Amino acid sequence: MKISLATNFDDDLIDQIKDYPVYEIYGKLKYDYVGGGRPDNTLINIDKRRFEEHVKKVRNAGIRFNYLLNGSCLANNEQDVEWQKKFIDFLSYLKKVGVNALTLTNPYLLMLIRKHFKNDFYVRVSTFACIDSYTKAKYWEELGADYLCVDFVKINRDFRTLKYIVDNLKKAKIEILVTNSCLKNCPMIYTHTNGLSHASSMGHNNQYEDWSLFYCQKKELENIDEYIKSPWVRPEDIKYYEEIGIEHFKITERDFPTEQLVKRVKAYTERHYDGNLLDLIQGHGVVEVRDLTLKKNKVEKRKEIYDEIKRVRGLGRERECNRHIYIDNKKLDNFIDFFVSNKCTGNCNSCGYCKMIASKVIKKNEDVCNYLLELYDKYDKIKL
Q1: What is the Cα–Cα distance from 252 to 279, expressed in whole angstroms?
Q2: CATH number of 2-223+230-281, picked from 3.20.20.70, 3.10.450.50, 3.40.50.2300, 3.40.50.720
Q3: pLDDT tens-digit profile of 312-322?
Q4: How far apart are CA 350 and CA 137, in angstroms?
Q5: Fewer CB within 10 Å, N or C, the chain?
Q6: Residue ranges of the domains in the chain?
C-alpha cells in the first residue's frame, strides 16, 4: 500500500505520518497560474517561505512533494507564449525548492513539462481528467504520465475495467481516490471541476458559490441510497484492489486539521474503522467529539442561506450540529463482494442492491436532514 496524502501545511502532520506508508504529500499555494480542485476560500493562505519550509520538511522525511496543477480549465491560456514563459519559470521555482512531482489535468501541460523538464518531475494525472477506460489511460501513459488517478465517479468499483487497465499498461500505475462521497456518475462533474479550477486561479473574482456541491448533497438527502452508490472505498476493502494489482491510494482533505488526516491514514493503513463512515469519506463536517444541538437560524437572503448550509454541514469550518446521517461502517462488511464479482450492471432502477444496503446501515438524523432540505430548497429558489 502506498498513500498519497493531502497536506494542510502543518509540519507536525509530517512527523505523525512518516512511519505510515505515505509515499507522497500533495498540496499547492492558495493562488497560482493553473488552479486546482478546491476553491481558494477554503484553503489557508501560506506565503512562499512557509511553503518552501514545508516542502523541505516533507522531502527530509523521505517523502515526495506533489504540487497540484490540476485545474481542468485554463481558458486557453496554456497556448499563449507569454503565459507559457511564466508557467515554465514557476515550474523552475518548484523544482528549485524541492517539489519532485506534479498533478495535472491538461494534456497540453504534460507535453510542455516533458519537453522542458524531461523527467525532473513524476507526473500524476488528476481524477479530473476522467480516465474511465484503458484507451484513455493508454493515451496519458504515452504522453508521459507516471500515475493515473482514475475517474472515481465511474469506475472505482468496476473491477473488470480496473484490472484490464492495470494488466495492459506498460509503465503507468493506477491510483484510486478512496475518500470521496460524490454521486455515482455525477452529472455535475465537468461543471464542478471547471468551476473549482477558476475559483482557485489567479485573477478570478471571489464570488464563487459551490452550488454543484449543494446539488449533490441535496440529491443524497432525498435518496439516501446514493450514499451507498457513492464510489468511496472502505479501509477494510483495500485488499480487493491490491489483489488486482493496484497499490496507490489517495486520501483527502487539504483543509482538514492534522488529527483528522492522521486518523484517515491510520484507518486505511490498519484496514479497519469503527464508526460513521462519513468521518472518512466526506470533505467537510469535521468536529470535536461531543454532542451538538441543532440550532435553526432565520435566513432569507442568498448569502445568509448559503452560509447557513455551510454552518450546518461544516463546509470550510467546524460543524455546529450532529451529523445528518450515520453510516455504520462495520455493517458494510462483505458489501464490496457484489462489485468484486462484477454483479453490478450499473442499471440501478432494476437492481436495488444499494437501496437494500442503505436500509440496513444508514440511520438518519431526521431533524438535521429536514432542516438541510429546507435550506437547499430555499437556496435553489433564490440562486436563479
Answers
A1: 12
A2: 3.20.20.70
A3: 998 877 888 88
A4: 31
A5: C
A6: 2-223+230-281, 302-383
